[in-house]
Every structure is written in structure tokens, then in C-alpha cells.
Design goal:
Number of strands: 32
Largest sheet: 6 strands, antiparallel
Structural class: alpha+beta
Strand content: 25-35%
Helix content: 25-40%
Shape: elongated
Oligomer: single chain
Radius of gyration: 50 Å
Mean pLDDT: 83
Length: 816
């Protein structure tokens, strides 16, 4: 090695033999100068001796000399970096060590050793300093040879298991920590030995032998050590404990899963089950969510503090097997539909009851099933010699306690601590808001369903005009209930009115508005008006409600649609009108499907031109399909032609009965959770046979009254209804007499035998008769009063050419 190389090596080391020495007196004046000092700083001895040390330094460090000499006098020495000024004026960084060189009884002297730093990275320390640094470091440090056997480690590494440094010598990682995944760590070391690439930030999760129940996490970094020729001689690695950070990540991940998985529906039991699914197995071995029965039905909980408290187990999850110690909990799989809740009865003054009453959590670190009998209500009953750790957290939302959630750990798992309790409270609080939302929604939806069930017909009236079937499918739970309705209203003369309508909007307001409109339709139907007049009156009523009630039910009903159909089974005539509503479809007896060319009126309450009716005659066995627009829609946007084509195909499919046909049509066109409410009313027409209808033309002569009575009596005898002869003769006599006395034009008498016996008298008059209550001295005015007393119902129906007064006698009440 040449002189230049030896000088370079000397400059990188700090040793007395390699340093440039000089002497100072007590005042910091140079008293002795050496050739090494001259070579380092470029001053001859004649120029250097007698100068202050400050004169040999740059301006920045010259001011530090007094302080350095004072520290040297006080502490016996000083070491550090200084910036010296060479004789040619260039600065040079030097490492300086100043020590006291006093002789007993002599003058104060200071020995200064200067070493040029050159390209050295910094303060080059002695081996003893380095050893103290790595030995006292809080970071675990170790060196293994090429066989991955320990040759050195510091005391801090013992905190991570495996024994003290002297116990590790000559052993491998798997030997000193058998439970550790040593293979993964050693694979990293072999890779570093092979390619020399440093590995930084390798994370390892496991359990220490000194704390087998506590999961820990460390970050390891590996660096290859080489000799002077670049050959690998071992691996130097460090270990940093990041358990707290690892557990914080796990908690955040659990909370993130809870945010994504809890509250996916507005079902209380499903929400409780989702809470249990999220917490098992990552956080607990078993979880139970217990709620009072009123909460499951949408009501407020009312716990009784005086005795035992029955709760319904709305959600429960038990880990099948204990999770591996270092396993990351997988995301919960979707749970099946919750089973019916099981009732558990907690004893009075037990921790679950106290939590329910006080609203405060409870923590039991190590519990014995023998000493705590209430543990029998846990999802997993522990063995007598198996201590368990339990957390009980109340389910609280908006100031109300809705139930309790019990978390259980058993076996080798670490007991719950204060951090676990805080995490459990956070989990339950998130679920509690979802449970409360579901509870409130359940209450609102149940109220709306009850309202809607009471507003829709429980069953359609029995009659002989049509065979009828209906199907209603509400919108999905997130959209809410709608205002669709259907109805069948018996009219006079064996006729029926078929109605389907829809009020815009969803929820209770829409259901209430629907009820008001449906009631109005039934009231107008009782007047026996033509369909276009019924809709005209209904339109005026909705508009008036909107003006009077502003944003309440009147406005809710504005824009409602309705189709009103009247079918007469005597002659098969069908008259209908529509207000902003799809026209009915007709399935003819041969299976052909057509759509009625029905003039469309504007929606109710919006004003517009007068409504128009359409009339057609249907063959017996034809099927009318009245529906709301939700049956044709496939989302927010839909085309009428496309919807009708789909409906035509569905109606062409044959089924054994009308009920099944109706359900099949809805199932084919509407998903299980439709975009909008759907109502479908199907009516298959019937005809009354000619032998069940009899009519006669009568002259406007009082003598015709007696003949009319006799004719009606003979027909009743043919129909085997002799017991109705007296009443029928009385009705015929009074109605025909009034027609002859007060009306003009032709007079016709008609009898219809259906479920009731109908007596009709037609005349050309335009005035309606009035029921009077005559005084005792009056000689007349008792005709209609008698008719109303002896018949089930009576009324007047106006036609274009006159009017019909009718009366009905029930046949079903007489067992006919």
C-alpha cells in the first residue's frame, strides 16, 4: 500500500498515532507545534507557536474557543468537530480531541489531537462507543452469520422473545422462538445474502413466548454484511415493535367493515345479525344482540327494573373454530335470513339488565360460569373450569336504550381490555343508529301497511257479472308504499263498476290520499252516473281539496290517475272512461289481446277538457285487465309500446284459473321489488241467460198497473219465487203508478234475477222522485216510503232518453 493510500486510511481513523498533536497553555496559546500539525494546517512552527487557538480557526468557530477551554477545564476534556483555517486561507474540517496534560506542580497545559475529516461521513467513534450505542439502543439488533446463526445481539432484542444475547449464540431464529414463523423471516435473510438488496419494513405478526395470548407485530429490516473483498459474512437486522400501530390498523379495518356491512337493510333483525357477523371471529369468539320485543315491532322499549327481563336474541354469531393467532379476520360473508328470535330471560340485577337500565357498558375480564349463573344465557356456555372475558355494551341511539350486545372471548385469547371496550362501544353505536332507523322505519311501514290494508278491499264482493281476481305488489322497502288501488263496486241491475287508480307519491301521505279518492269514487258510484260523469265529479273534488288544503292530502291527490269501467251482464255492454291512466287490455275468448281505444282525459285535479267515454260489447268469457302504469314500467323511463307488447305476451299465456293468471302476469312483468307499486285487476265477463231477465212495454194507462202486477207474479212463479210475489206486486204497483202519474213517454217494466231480484221501471221523465214522510192526514205520498221499507235498497238511474227507478230484494238472505 502506497504512502498516499496510507494517508487516506489515516484520515478516516481517529487514533493518537494518526492525529496531528499540538500543545496549548492554559490561555489557549500554542506552545508546541509538530510536523504533522504543519502538514495538516500549512503553518510552519515559527508562525504557529505563540498564536491563540482561535487564530487557527475560521471566524465561526473562533468564538467557541473560550467555552471549549472552560469545558475542558471543568470536565477534563472535550471532543468535537471544528473548522480550521489553513495557512493559504482555505477552511479544513477537523476532528479535535482536547485533554488536560498538566504535570503535578507545573503550569496548565492542553494536548490537542487534530484529525482531518476529509471524505469521512462524520464523527468516527471508538469500538467502545459503538458497542454502548447498539447495546443500549431501544431497537432490537442482531447479527447472524451465513448459516443464519446468531453471532451477536443486543439486550433490546430479548424483549421480542428468544432469551438474552448469550443464550442466542450459535442458534437460529426457529430454535430460540419455536412459535414464530421463522421460515418467512429466514427466507428474507437468504434473499439478502444472495442479492445484497436491503429489505426495509418487513412486517411480522405473531405471539411472543413470554405473552402467548397477546398478538404482537414487528417491523424488521435486513442488511447484508460484507468483508473487505465484498463477500457476504452475515446479515445485520433490526426489530421495531409496532404492536400498537398494528392493533390500531385492525380496529380501523373492523370499523371500516362495520360501516360497509351494518345497515344494508331496514330490517331490525338483519341489522342485529350484521353486527354479530362483523365482530366474529376477528374481535370476539361469540356475539349476541338482545333486543326487547317492542323494539323488534318498531315501538319504544319499556324495561321493568323490578324483575327479570325477557329479551329476544335478534342476532347471534359463534366462531366455528378459534382463529389462528396471526390470522387477519376475513370480511364477513353475507348471512342468511335471520331465524325467528329466541327469547332469553336475564335475572334481575345481572350485568345485562344493569346495562339495559343504566345505559352504561360492563366489562368482566375473567369470569367463572359457576360463580356467574347468568353466563348460561351466553351464546356459548363456558365449561366450569374455562374462564371467559365478557363485554356487555348497551345499544343506545337518540337517548334510548334499545337492547344490549354481549361480546365473548374464551380459551387462549387475550381478555378484553379498555381499548377493546372503546372499540366495542364504537361498533355498537354505529349499529344502534341503524337499528333505530330500522325500528322507526318498521313503525312507519307497519302503520302505512295497516292503513293501506284497511283502505284496499279485504275481499271483492260476490256477484254474477264477472269472475274477478286482483294482485297488488308494493314497491320495495327503500322506496316505500304507494297510492295504487283497485275496486269492484256492485251497481244496480246486476251491473258492476271496475276501478283501478293511482295517487302519485309514496308513504302514509300517498296511502291516505288514495283512501280519500277511493272513498269518493265509491260515493259517486252509488249515484249510478256514467263513467265520464263520475270522473268529472271526481276531478272537481280533487281540485277543490287542493285549493282548500294546500300541501296536504289534496295536493297529494292532484295528478292521480283512474280508469272507471261499468259492465252490464244483461247485454255485455262495457262503458269506460279514463283520467290520466292506461287503457284496459281485453283478452277475447279466442286468446287475442287488444287494447281499448279509450280517449285519455287529463289527470285528476289538473283541469282540462271534458272526459269522454268509450263503449263496446264484449263476448261472454272475455277478460278485462285494468292495471296501473307500474305494470308496464321497467325503471324510471319506459315506452308505452314496449310495455304493451310485454303485457300482451304475458296475457296470452294460459293458466288454469284467473287468480293464477293474474299472479303470473305480475310475476312475468314485475320484479320482486318493483320500481313502483303495481295493481292489476282482471275480470272475466259473464252473461245473464235470457230466462233470468223479463221486460214488458206498458201503456200510460192506470189500468195497466193491475196487468203489470199479474205479469210480474206469473214470472216469479216461473222462477220459483212465490214467496216474493206480495212484495214484488207492491213494488211494481207503486213504481208503475208513479211513472204513469208523473212522467211522460213510454213505460217499461223489467225484472232481473241474479243474487237479488231487481225490479226496474223506465219512463221518459227527467225529474227524480223524492222519498217523503207524509203526515197522518195526507192521502198520498207513501209509495216510495213503502218501497224503501220492503226492499233492500232502491234508487234512480238516469239515461239519455229518461230515467229508471229500481228496487232490489235479496235472494241470498232467503236461502234462494
Amino acid at each position: 500500500m502506497g504512502t498516499h493510500d496510507e494517508d487516506g486510511v489515516a484520515r478516516r481513523r481517529f487514533d493518537v498515532a494518526d492525529a496531528a498533536p499540538l500543545l496549548l497553555d492554559g490561555r489557549g496559546v500554542v506552545t508546541s507545534w509538530t510536523r504533522d500539525a504543519e502538514r495538516l494546517l500549512g503553518y510552519p512552527a515559527a508562525d504557529a507557536v505563540g498564536r491563540d487557538l482561535a487564530g487557527l480557526l475560521t471566524h465561526g468557530d473562533a468564538g467557541r474557543v473560550t467555552e471549549i477551554l472552560e469545558r475542558c477545564r471543568r470536565d477534563g476534556g472535550w471532543s468535537g468537530l471544528l473548522s480550521a483555517r489553513r495557512g493559504d486561507g482555505r477552511p479544513v474540517p477537523v476532528m479535535a480531541r482536547i485533554t488536560c496534560a498538566d504535570e503535578p506542580g507545573g503550569a496548565d497545559r492542553r494536548l490537542v489531537l487534530l484529525s482531518e475529516m476529509g471524505d469521512a461521513p462524520g464523527w468516527t467513534m471508538s469500538r467502545s462507543v459503538l458497542e454502548r450505542m447498539v447495546s443500549d439502543s431501544p431497537i432490537g439488533i442482531a447479527i447472524v452469520d451465513t448459516d443464519l446463526r446468531f453471532v451477536w445481539s443486543n439486550d433490546a432484542l430479548a424483549r421480542f422473545g428468544g432469551g438474552r444475547p448469550e443464550e442466542r449464540l450459535g442458534l437460529r431464529l426457529g430454535d430460540v422462538q419455536p412459535g414464530l414463523d421463522a421460515e418467512a423471516a429466514e427466507a428474507q435473510m437468504r434473499r439478502v445474502l444472495a442479492d445484497g438488496a436491503t429489505v426495509v419494513g418487513y412486517e411480522h405478526v405473531g405471539h411472543l413466548r413470554t405473552a402467548p395470548h397477546r398478538e404482537t407485530a414487528q417491523v424488521l429490516s435486513f442488511t447484508r454484511l460484507e468483508d473487505d473483498h465484498g463477500n457476504p459474512v452475515g446479515v445485520y437486522y433490526t426489530v421495531v415493535d409496532i404492536t400498537d400501530r398494528h392493533r390500531a390498523r385492525q380496529r380501523l379495518a373492523l370499523l371500516d367493515r362495520a360501516g360497509r356491512c351494518i345497515g344494508s337493510s331496514l330490517d331490525i333483525a338483519r341489522t342485529a345479525q350484521e353486527l354479530a357477523d362483523v365482530a366474529v371471529p376477528g374481535f370476539a369468539d361469540a356475539v349476541a344482540v338482545d333486543l326487547p320485543a317492542p323494539v323488534l315491532h318498531g315501538a319504544e322499549p319499556t324495561p321493568d327494573p323490578t324483575g327479570s327481563v325477557p329479551l329476544h336474541r335478534a342476532g347471534v354469531r359463534v366462531a366455528e373454530t378459534a382463529p389462528p393467532p396471526d390470522a387477519v379476520p376475513p370480511p364477513p360473508t353475507p348471512a342468511p335470513a335471520p331465524a325467528p328470535a329466541v327469547t332469553v330471560v336475564h335475572p334481575a340485577d345481572s350485568p345485562p339488565v344493569r346495562c339495559l337500565l343504566t345505559g352504561r357498558p360492563w366489562h368482566g375480564e375473567r369470569l367463572d360460569a359457576v360463580a356467574e349463573p347468568w353466563l348460561r344465557n351466553l351464546p356459548v356456555v363456558p365449561a366450569p373450569d374455562e374462564p371467559v372475558s365478557v363485554l356487555i355494551v348497551p345499544v343506545r341511539a337518540r337517548g334510548a336504550t334499545l337492547g344490549v350486545t354481549t361480546f365473548l372471548r374464551r380459551g387462549p385469547r387475550e381478555p378484553f381490555d379498555a381499548d377493546d371496550l372503546a372499540l366495542a362501544e364504537d361498533l355498537v353505536s354505529r349499529a344502534a343508529v341503524c337499528v333505530d332507523n330500522a325500528r322507526r322505519y318498521t313503525r312507519e311501514r307497519d302503520a302505512a301497511l295497516v292503513l293501506q290494508r284497511n283502505l284496499l278491499p279485504h275481499r271483492l264482493p260476490e256477484q254474477d257479472a264477472v269472475e274477478v281476481a286482483a294482485c297488488y305488489r308494493p314497491a320495495d322497502e327503500l322506496t316505500g308504499l304507494g297510492g295504487d288501488w283497485y275496486d269492484l263496486i256492485p251497481l244496480s241491475a246486476a251491473r258492476v263498476a271496475l276501478v283501478v287508480g293511482e295517487v302519485p307519491g309514496h308513504g302514509i301521505d300517498a296511502a291516505a290520499a288514495m283512501g280519500r279518492v277511493r272513498t269518493a269514487v265509491r260515493t259517486l258510484a252509488a249515484l249510478d252516473l256514467p263513467p265520464d260523469e263520475v270522473l268529472a265529479h271526481l276531478d272537481d273534488l280533487v281540485a277543490r281539496m287542493a285549493r282548500e288544503e294546500g300541501l296536504d292530502a289534496g295536493t297529494q291527490a292532484q295528478g292521480a290517475g283512474c280508469v272507471y269501467v261499468v259492465y252490464d251482464p244483461v247485454d255485455g255492454r262495457c262503458t269506460m272512461a279514463a283520467a290520466g291512466h292506461p287503457a284496459p287490455a281485453v283478452v277475447l275468448p279466442d286468446g287475442e289481446v287488444t287494447f281499448v281505444d279509450l280517449p285519455q282525459g287529463s289527470a285528476l285535479g289538473l283541469g282540462g277538457p271534458p272526459f269522454e267515454s268509450a263503449q263496446l260489447t264484449l263476448p261472454e268469457g272475455s277478460t278485462l285487465a285494468l292495471h296501473t302504469d307500474g305494470l308496464l314500467a321497467q325503471g324510471a323511463a319506459w315506452a308505452l309500446d314496449t310495455g304493451r307488447a310485454r303485457l300482451r305476451r304475458a296475457l296470452q299465456q294460459r293458466a288454469p284459473g284467473l287468480d293464477l293468471t293474474c299472479r303470473n302476469v305480475v310475476d312475468a312483468l314485475v320484479p320482486a321489488r318493483p320500481y313502483d307499486d303495481v295493481a292489476l285487476l282482471m275480470a272475466r265477463t259473464r252473461r245473464l241467460s235470457p230466462d233470468r231477465v223479463a221486460d214488458w212495454e206498458l201503456p200510460a194507462d192506470p189500468a195497466a198497473v193491475a196487468e203489470a202486477r199479474r205479469t210480474a207474479s206469473r214470472r216469479l212463479a216461473e222462477w220459483e219465487l212465490p214467496e216474493l210475489s206480495f212484495t214484488t206486486e207492491l213494488v211494481v204497483s207503486e213504481l208503475v203508478t208513479n211513472a204513469i202519474r208523473y212522467a211522460a213517454g213510454p213505460i217499461r217494466l223489467r225484472l232481473i234475477r241474479e243474487r237479488s231480484l231487481v225490479c226496474e221501471v223506465f219512463d221518459g221523465g227527467a225529474t227524480a222522485p223524492h222519498l217523503r214522510h207524509p203526515r197522518t192526514t195526507d192521502e198520498g205520498g207513501r209509495g216510495l216510503l213503502l218501497v224503501s221499507q220492503v226492499t233492500e235498497r232502491w234508487g234512480t238511474r238516469f239515461l239519455g232518453e229518461g230515467k229508471i227507478i229500481w228496487a232490489e230484494q235479496s235472494l241470498t238472505d232467503r236461502g234462494v
